[in-house]
Amino acid sequence: MQKVFNKYGLKYDVKSSLAQSRLEYKAQPQKRVDKQSFYKESLLKSAVNKLRMTVRPNMRLVPATLAVLIQCAALLIVAAVIWIVNFAVTVYFGANLNISIFTLVLMQALFAATLSYLAGMATWWRWIHLCFPLTAWIMFQWHIPNAVYLVGFVISLSLFWTTFRTQVPFFPSRPVVWQQVANIIPQDNPVRLIDIGSGLGDMSMYMAKTRPDSQIEGIEIAPLPWVISFIRAKFRRSSAKFILGNYQALDFANYDVIFAYLSPAAMRMLWDKASKEMRPGSLLISLEFEIPGVPENIRILGNKNTPEIYVWKIA
Ligand SMILES: C[S@@+](CC[C@H](N)C(=O)[O-])C[C@H]1O[C@@H](n2cnc3c(N)ncnc32)[C@H](O)[C@@H]1O
């Protein structure tokens, strides 16, 4: 096993599985841009930004509320466009406009996706806005019984719970990441580690298996993944403990390692809490998401299958 030190003096072991991983210390490659395309790009950018400032509501809305408002606004725009076009066709051609439902649904989808872009919503929201009216129309065509929607809603609710507020959906990390995390954490002494937002519990159970000397926990806010992780841990006789709750209620001072796989929206709040509560020398590890303006001590570069891992050693 090879020992690696970075420039901050943080030490960890590198097993063969990690041998291909490269370390990067914030060295960003410089992009060469020619003048003309630079001006073109900045003119276009400022026009889009101006439009965004007009469209974007001044109040701070959670994305789910903004999404509902955008669909309503798109509906009003579609109604207005149809009314104007119908008026023009009637006046100039003396005929009535004949538009299929599918065309209306497509217009709704396109207007909603455009508005979400102008409102500066994340890319996946644009896809949701685009797909939502079309999917609703297809489902309507299939005459699916109402109970199916209710069951779908209950399952989604227990899986995603307050995602509309936390802005952290459920998606699992992969075994290669768990190995890398196991290699990063201190090897010499037992640690107390918690996965904040433990999902189905795989990461915590892996850590409990690889580090039987340590105390491994997971906390999950959504009931369904928590129940599943709890039952799985019992069946597997894993020593990992799973708590149902919000990680914001924890005292981070009780842990040596905090592992987070959250979302860009959650990182600022996470850092506010971690920097206040975590003990000097403890590690905050984030899969995929950086903390804006807080340089990490170690970054393990990912590849197209594995996201990057960021590590902060609390000073
Ligand atoms: C991206 S998943 C990560 C799952 C798991 N850590 C893994 O690596 O497979 C994020 C999870 O965090 C949960 N979550 C979001 N906000 C939370 C909070 N404030 N407290 C506890 N769990 C939270 C979500 O419900 C979701 O299951």
TrEMBL record:
Q: Which InterPro entries match?
A: FAM173A/B (IPR026170), SAM-dependent_MTases_sf (IPR029063)
Q: Which GO terms describe its molecular function?
A: protein-lysine N-methyltransferase activity
Metal-binding found in the keyword field: no
Which keywords, in A-to-Z order, does the entry hold?
Membrane, Methyltransferase, S-adenosyl-L-methionine, Transferase, Transmembrane, Transmembrane helix
**One GO term of the biological process aspect:** methylation
Q: Is Methyltransferase set as a keyword in this record?
A: yes
List where the protein spans the membrane: 61-85, 91-112, 146-164
Which SUPFAM superfamilies does this one have? S-adenosyl-L-methionine-dependent methyltransferases (SSF53335)
Give the protein name, as stated in the record: Methyltransferase type 12
